[in-house]
Amino acid sequence: MADARGANPMVLVLSGAFVVLVGLDLISDYLEGGTGTHLILEGILLAISGAVFGGGIRELAQARQKIESLTSDVEKLNIEKEKWKGETHQLLAGLSIKIENQFLHWQLTPAETEVGFLLLKGFSLKEIADVRSTKLKTVQQQSQAIYQKTKLASRSELAAFFLEDLLPPTP
């Protein structure tokens, strides 16, 4: 819904046309020797309609400036968003490599590595079995093998192993 305080384009066009018509009538009456009172009244009408028209033009100009400012702000935010996404992507890629290197250090098999990543992403054992097209029992055995090789007791400890360095130190 349009802002009722904004310049309605139709009002702007009509007030502009009214200014022109009243101005032409005033000139015509003056040239034909119209009376002073009549010319004064038409002059006042011209001044009022001119003020309305001028106010509408001013509001329109302000609205255009506001739109340009908002458009500029949106463009700046989009640039900042893309920069942030790029930096985040680089960080996540680096973290992924670090996790994979740690899995290699723990001598996890390729299947255990895949299960380990899915565990870190928060997938349930059943979801991991579905994603990998394996049986639930197989995923359970692979996750137990991960915990034995890493000497960690649970998914929480596995996640904490990688996340604790990312979080600020506790006081």
Structural class determined from secondary elements: mainly alpha
Count of extended strands: 0
Helix content: over 70%
Order of helices and strands: HHHHHH
Question: Whole-Å distance between the termini?
Answer: 52 Å
Chain-wise SSE layout:
Blueprint: H1 9-31, H2 36-105, H3 110-120, H4 125-132, H5 136-150, H6 155-163
Explain this structure to me?
The chain is built from 6 helices and no strands. It has 171 residues and is an all-alpha fold. The mean pLDDT is 87. The chain has helices spanning 9-31, 36-105, 110-120, 125-132, 136-150, 155-163.
What can be said about this structure in brief?
The protein is an all-alpha fold and 171 residues long. 80% of the residues lie in helices and 0% in strands.
List keywords for this structure.
mainly alpha; Arc Repressor Mutant, subunit A; 2 domains; 6 helices; 80% helix
